[in-house]
Amino acid sequence: MRTGRRDDDLVFGATGAEPFAPKDLTRRADEAWAALRRITLHECRHTFASYMIAAGVNAKTVSTYIGHASVSFTLDRYGHPFPGAEDEAAGLLDTYLQAAGGHGA
Questions:
Q1: In a 10 Å sphere around its CB, with 0-12 CB exposed, 13-18 middle and 19+ buried, how is residue 49 labelled?
Q2: pTM (two decimals)
Q3: pLDDT means over runs of 10, the chain (105 residues)
Q4: CA distance 86 to 90
Q5: Which of these, 7, 25, 93, 100, has the minimum number of CB atoms within 10 Å of its CB?
Q6: What is the 3-state secondary structure (H, E, C) of 34-87?
Q7: What integer pLDDT is reported at residue 39 of this predicted model?
Q8: CB-based contact 56:82 (threshold 8 Å)
């Protein structure tokens, strides 16, 4: 709908009546990929683990996904604090203590 094309118009065409040329799509994709820094599969693994931890996935699950024999290795390798993690942890503890009838901060 955003393209303004209707009825028999091509949604993914170069125009409403002209289909896209695969070579143009390939060229545009190559240009987009060239603008990115290449990372190795090992770097992808580190990125995956770091994002999982940042998203709050527990360390045992992350360890299982990436194939470590020990969750302690996973924590040693990937458990470094993310910016703001200490403040978040303090807030979670405070919320827990208040809910449990404790005093909190």
A1: buried
A2: 0.49
A3: 76 78 84 88 90 86 92 84 74 90 65
A4: 6
A5: 7
A6: HCCCCCCHHHHHHHHHHHHHHCCCCHHHHHHHHCCCCHHHHHHHHCCCCCCHHH
A7: 86
A8: no
Distance, C-alpha 65 to centroid of its chain = 15
Residue 81: CA atoms inside 13 Å, Cβ hemisphere, count?
A: 7
Q: How far is CA 22 from the centre of its chain?
A: 29
Structure tokens at 103: 């005093």
Q: For helices 59-66 and 41-54, give the axis angle rounded to 10 degrees.
A: 160
Which two three-digit tokens encode residue 74? 């996973």
What distance, in Å, lies between the first and last C-alpha atoms of the chain? 52
Structure tokens at 35: 């603008």
Residues, the chain, total? Answer: 105
How many CA atoms lie less than 13 Å away from 46 in the CB half-sphere? 8
Cα atoms in the 13 Å half-sphere on the side-chain side of 42 = 0
